[in-house]
Amino acid sequence: MMQQLLTAVPLILIALSAAPALIIFMLPERANRTRVTINVAAAALKVGLMAAMVPLILRTDVAPELRIPFLPGTDLVLRIDSLSLLFTLLSALLWLVTTVYAIGYLAGRPNQRRFFGFFALCVTATVGIAFAGNLVTFLVFYEMLSLVTYPLVAHYGTSGALAAARVYLFYALGGGLLVLAATAWLTIVAGPVEFSPGGAEAVAALARDHPGVAIAIFGLLVAGFGVKAALFPFHSWLPRAMVAPAPVSALLHAVAVVKAGAFGLIRVIDDLYGVELAAGLGVLTPLLVVACFTVLYGSVRALLQDDIKKRLAYSTVSQVSYIALGLSMLSVVATTGGVVHLVHQGLSKITLFFCAGLVAEVWGIKKISQLDGLGRRMPLTAAAFTAGALSMIGIPPMAGFISKWQLGAGALDAGQPWVIGVLIGSALLNAAYFLPVVVRMWFRPPAEIREGPVENRTRPVLEAPATLLWPAVATACFAIAVGLFAGLPFSPLDVAGHIAERVYR
Amino acid sequence: MMAALWILSAVVPLVTAAVLAATQRARTRRSLRVASGHLNWAPAALLPAAVLTLIGPAEQFHVPWLMVGVTVGFDVVSRALVMVAVMLYGAATWAVTWRYDRRAPELVAYLLVSFVGNAGVYLAADAVSFYAAFSLMSLAAVGLVLHDRTEKARRAARVYLTLAVISEMAVLAAVLLTVHAGGFTLADAPSAVADSPRRTLIVVLLLIGFGIKTGVFGLHMWLPLAHPAAPPAASAVLSGAMVKAGVVGMFRFMPLGEAEMPVMGGIVVVLALVSAGAAVLLGVVQRDPKVVLAYSTISQMGFLGVLVGVALSAPELAAACVTAAVIYAVHHGLAKGALFIGVPVWKHHGTGARRHLVTAGMALAGLVVVGAPLSSGAVGKYAAKEAIETTSLLGVELADLLPLVATGSTVLLIRMLWLLRHTELEPHHPQDDPELPAWLGLVVLSAIVPWVLTDRWVPLNSVPGLEPVTLWNAAWPVLIGVAAGAAVWHWLPRKRPQLAGRLAAAVPPGDVLVLEERVLARAGSVANQAVDGIGAVRDRIGSGLRTVNTHLLRGVVTAQETEDRAGRWSVSGPLTLIVLGALVVAALVWGGSTGGGA
């Protein structure tokens, strides 16, 4: 009975995300209240359910699983283990926060039904990716994610938005194609393979018998997931996708698309091949080098941008590669750092994007040079931005410091001390493009603002409306809290530590 | 109970800072009065920390769930220094409240946050909390430097922030390496560094990171810029407490007493002596009294650097050197702070009968700083001399070189007094505020308190007595300095007025920085040219490809046109048949001949 109940849980959670989408599509455009209620209620319910599952999954080592026959020989497998739990909890929490933000951001604008419908579908796809128990299931939801985020990126419908969305779709589907090729190849040579902590048996056997094939499949998988995870040279879609509305950029960067790519990398390296096997095949070092290069490249490009969202986009390119960096070093501490950075970077980045969207909405600020004196105009927003920026640089006690500390310690553990040079260099570059902005916000007189759609821009202090402001402040507080209280049990660092330990046998 | 006291000591200043930051927006008269009331109580936020320092036990306070585990505790290095920090920050905060202006709450807020960071650096017992406190202190100081919002302050803040970030990153790298070597707790850190195969790298990183903080020559550029730009209360804590945090960092991480590193130690001693000497030369030609005081700080930190270098090269002297350095820092901190705060006091009260009071106060504080006999500063110098015993560098006894630092300090002090004497006064300052008596009280405290602190908490084997030999040893450097300074004071403006003027204009406060800025500007323009060059190459390749593309397209179009024209040619059909027929005949003939031949 308990087993049957547990089997239904993954399905319930996916249905909880998909049902709002269907309902929203069926409601008329002007049914604002109902739509808001459904969105917020579903998001809150999901956070509650996931939080309730935490002690069960982490303490008792139960992994509720659901199998649906799909292809001959391969089932659709949905399984909740600690890694899926971590990722889904993050995405559920951030979905709730982003929903509130999007409600405020898009209030009074057209096409809300389309937006929120695809928004909910995007979250469904993310949950499916988190729960996927084998590559085929992962691929199904991965492609679904690419398709349902296209309308979100192209939401404004301008020619620029459509062009950017086309580029995004090209990259995303191209990556999906690579993953499809790799999955098919792997299934043909090794049979149906499922994720299991520390690596699947069939893949280990394949690596023993045909190491070249195993390496080639690994390369294809990493390339395919690397497109979404914005590894160099597949990162160009990300800055271009900044034409999307701010909630979409926030979601894309913090939770859904980029993190899905990184999550795929975690699954491949830790649960499909296994870190030790991958190190034995010699594929981790090239990945490490690519990740290090992307870290530095993204930071340098970010330094040269004047548009706020573009600068944040290149910063994401750089930061997500920290995850790949942590994964490709043979050390428990490094893997912990990579996995926990998934959470920490998500929280910090979403704060920064919320603030960027806020200042654009209220004051029409789109360029870095216009951020002078924001501390006087919007003190709470400026404080949230400062918290996010300090976390990106890695100043204690913010979340970013904890993951950077783990990565640095892991690099020494794994015998790769030069990675510390990359980390320090990247931190210096991050400081170079974030600290001057923070100082200007607080210590310069406010810049001249052109007249714009918001009438009260003549007021000296004009904070954003509550639905826009409180999500930003809330995520900033989370970013501080996960860093400050990282030593508590069930903190992201603790959970990441458990996940990493399972992977090493 | 102790846990509550620890938590209060950290939380109360931070909460007070937050409240003050929020009252920044006070505009109406009533809210201004409330805000001013808050401000007057602000120095009381340091009370829990003061109580903790007085009665706190030696056991460490451990919080396992904060970050990766935080441990703090008092030891012989930290207790006296924290008390000095409490008094200095309290005095600085009080000095700000003497006159309420609109941005005073912001300054006090930054002072309180810097205090938490600064005290945290002294008290940290594990590497991560040390680094966290160090970052907090460095970043909060930006608010102090930028307080006046002038162009000078912005430049100073830019330089300070750049160097502070570099120093933080160097310290982070060193801390990561130390923790990997087994030194997570600071008690284990020196031995862990000593046993590590990357020992030299760690020491170099620590030197860069903490050297920037203490103003070692070459990395000192932020000090002469930040001190004049910051308000005097902020300069007092910068010189009196924050710079000492760098020295404490060196004690906590460097393998003093655990490893013998004669080469590194020698380099450190040379750098320190160069700092001490160069600072005097550069400082004596400056025109702003606060800049002179900044160079004087660099010179005195050079003195401490010699002690660190000796400890590094001779492990048996390490314990004595560390104790001596702590004593010197304790004696130096309060008096330096009093000197800085005295600059505006002179400006406001430098006329009439009060002028003599202020001069006496400055002289007293100055004598403590240079270590005149019978002052508390002499204790530090005596301890240092005892600690380094007979160490020599390149054949010269260090014990002979060290007193010359006192000479340099005296010269700088006299220069500062001369500059003060010739600065513009602002005698319209309201005469009924507590500035003058409060500052005089601070000066007296700075002469007395260090005796008490070191007596109770930093036990010395021997204290300078009243024998004539000891007194003379302390006195002669100061006397030389006084003689030199007085001679230049009277002689130079009269005999060589132009030289005096030219010397004063020759060295701007940033000294090396101006050269470095020029080099950086040049590098920046070269980099720009390189990027433009790459862009031009890329454009040329792009246009080349486009030309090739156009040619190819033209070729295709021409081929297409030819084909069309050939298709329209009426003779093409029969012509094709004739050509085909000829080819078939030729093939048959040729095939037959070769086949027949074989």
UniProtKB/TrEMBL annotation, chain B:
Q: Where is the NADH:quinone oxidoreductase/Mrp antiporter transmembrane domain?
A: 124-356
Cellular localisation: Cell membrane; Membrane
Write one Pfam family the protein is assigned to.
Proton_antipo_M
Q: Which UniProt keywords apply?
A: Cell membrane, Lyase, Membrane, Oxidoreductase, Transmembrane, Transmembrane helix
Where is it mostly found?
A: membrane
- Entry GO CC: plasma membrane
Q: Which InterPro entries match?
A: ComplexI-like_HydComp (IPR052175), NADH_UbQ_OxRdtase (IPR003918), ND/Mrp_TM (IPR001750)
For this UniProt entry, which residues form the secretion signal?
A: none
The protein's topology relative to the membrane is: Multi-pass membrane protein
Which terms does the UniProt entry file under GO BP?
ATP synthesis coupled electron transport
Residue ranges annotated as transmembrane are 76-95, 107-124, 130-147, 159-181, 201-223, 230-251, 263-285, 292-311, 317-345, 357-375, 401-420, 436-454, 474-492, 575-593
The UniProt GO MF terms for this protein read: lyase activity; NADH dehydrogenase (ubiquinone) activity; oxidoreductase activity
Protein name as catalogued: Formate hydrogenlyase
